[in-house]
Amino acid sequence: MAKIIDGKKIAAEINESVKKRIKEISAAVGRVPKLASLTLGSPKDAEIYVNMQKRTAEKVGIDFEDIRLEADLSQEDLIREIEKLNKDIFVTAIIVQKPVPENIDHDRIIAAIDPRKDAEGLHPYNLGKILRHEADLVACTPGAVMKILSAEKIDLYGKEVVIVGGSAVVGKPLSLLMLNEMATTTVCNIATSEKGYLSEHVGRADVLVVAVGCPEMIKGEWVSEGAVVIDVGINMVEDKIVGDVAFSEVEKKASVITPVPGGVGPVTVSILMRNVFRAHKAQHLSSTGL
Question: What is the third-level CATH fold of 30-119+266-288?
Answer without folding.
Answer: Rossmann fold (3.40.50)
